[in-house]
Amino acid sequence: MRKHYFQYIPSNPKKEMILTRLGYKNNVTTLCDSEKEFLNNGIKEGLILCQPQGIYCILDIIENDGSIISFENNMKIESSNLSELLKDSKKAVFMFATVGYEVSERINYEISSGDASLGVILDSAASQTADAAVGWITEFINKLLKRNQEKLTKYRYSPGYGDLSLHFQKIIFDLLELDNLGVKITDSCMLEPEKSVIAISGIERMSING
Predict the structure, then answer these.
(1) Would you place residue 209 in the very low, low, confident or very high pLDDT band (cuts 50, 70, 90)?
(2) Where does the pLDDT of residue 152 fall: very low under 50, low under 70, confident under 90, or very high at 90 and above?
(3) The Cα angle at residue 202 between residues 144 and 133, in degrees rounded to 5
(4) Which domains does the chain have, with CATH numbers?
(5) What is the pTM of this model?
(6) Pairing of β 68-71 and β 76-78
(7) CB 92 within 8 A of CB 203
(8) Cα Rg for the chain, rounded, in angstroms?
(9) Nearest residue to 18 (alpha-carbon basis) of 129, 107, 124, 132
(10) For the chain, does the N or the C end have fewer beta carbons within 10 angstroms?
(11) DSSP letter for each residue of 128-158
(12) Are strands 196-205 and 91-98 parallel, antiparallel or unpaired?
């Protein structure tokens, strides 16, 4: 099993997504010039503080009985939702992306020091950057798979969603050896830095229409 590491990911989150996460509604939310300047400067600062990096690996699926998926390294994951996602896949991709500690530390500082508004803006920028980093890894893998008439599943799944228990986050943490990247995991299976994402996708054959 080979791991592919990206020391830097050119993550480029859409500003509209950052604004949506903040509750901004186009043609509904009104801001004065000073508020717009504060918002835009906060987003820019958040993006600068982010240091996107990531890693992924591919595992063969040995068995998928509809509720438990068994992989080549004897790892087993129990989830009907994930089993459904991988029903047409013989391989699965385990991805991880983070934006680093610096932006998380700054978010916590701003919120604890009383400037919650800036903290919330930084938080939104960091969250969308982490999601965009996973999206970038997905696009990278899809370009490689296309050579063999393969592609990733349309959707990806993360521990803590649906019936995929959060405790599987620790199993994938160990699989990807995320501690080598300075990433930590708590007893409750939360990742540190906070703005970090683990995702699972399947590899499928392309249809005639792609």
Answers:
(1) low
(2) very high
(3) 65
(4) 3-205 (3.40.109.40)
(5) 0.91
(6) antiparallel
(7) yes
(8) 19
(9) 124
(10) C
(11) HHHHHHHHHHHHHHHHHHGGGTEEE-SS-B-
(12) antiparallel
